[in-house]
Amino acid sequence: MCTISAASCFPEPFINDGKRLGFVHRNFAGTRFSDHVALLSVFQAWDEVRINGEEAENRFCEHKRLNMSTLRMTWEAKVQLKDILVNSGFPEECLMTQMFNTVGPDNNLDVVVSLLTYGSYPNVCYHKEKRKILTTEGRNALIHKSSVNCPFSSHDIKYPSPFFVFGEKIRTRAISAKGMTLVSPLQLLLFACKKISSNGEIMELDDWIKLKIPHEVAGGIAVLRAGLEALVVEVTKDPEYINQMDQSNERLLNVIRQVSKPSAAGINLMAGNQRYHRGRRFDSHKLTRITLKTAVRV
């Protein structure tokens, strides 16, 4: 998260001359449909290469069409951010560099996406077709051309889920969303809504996102929010609590890890990796029924 936070302070490191990103850059996102994961992956790859010297670093940046100065500034900002957190009392071991798998199952990366969902709210959008999206309260916008999720020309993409969180809106000739990451309906339910209502069959989030989801599932997810918010407050007051967490909060975190998995919402990111071809659109009524016994105990 320190890497993504630091990277958000600077322009993207991709050299694309104002055009849509090519596969040399899109491939960094793996199967995650995420600009944030692409940035994380770029930084991870660059960090591994640069230990071999400046010449290797130069070759890598030239081959992958990356701005080396931006990557170096991101590294410096990340170090400063980690120092601030450590000086605030957060244990160093929880800020150690992690390696992520962007092309296969990785529950740690699932949790990163959940944290992005939590931090990005209320910047939520729904994909309609091609570049067209709906943002909060059903307002029209476009996927920014610098996004790994932006379709090529007139091509359409059928995403595994139509829901995304994004970093910011840019207004040029039209309003565009930058820094987009695909999320599941369960992640929205737990991390990215203030109001949940129901008409008996349909759950509605913040009066505009409609989900057809079993009520016992929605209720089991929603009840976790109070525990999550209390845990955030506790850790903020006493960062050392991370190393001495009680059993109930350990169970809460384990449930959150399970809810964060795409498969918990019936989403298969690996199915054919059909990012730029025809594929099925996520249908919210096909949500997998997850086990809530553990959630109830928490």
Automatic annotation (TrEMBL):
<keyword id="KW-0347">Helicase</keyword>
<keyword id="KW-0378">Hydrolase</keyword>
<feature type="domain" description="DEAD-box helicase OB fold">
    <location>
        <begin position="115"/>
        <end position="192"/>
    </location>
</feature>
<keyword id="KW-0547">Nucleotide-binding</keyword>
<dbReference type="Pfam" id="PF07717">
    <property type="entry name" value="OB_NTP_bind"/>
</dbReference>
<keyword id="KW-0067">ATP-binding</keyword>
<dbReference type="InterPro" id="IPR011709">
    <property type="entry name" value="DEAD-box_helicase_OB_fold"/>
</dbReference>
<protein>
    <submittedName>
        <fullName>ATP-dependent RNA helicase A</fullName>
    </submittedName>
</protein>
<dbReference type="GO" id="GO:0004386">
    <property type="term" value="F:helicase activity"/>
</dbReference>
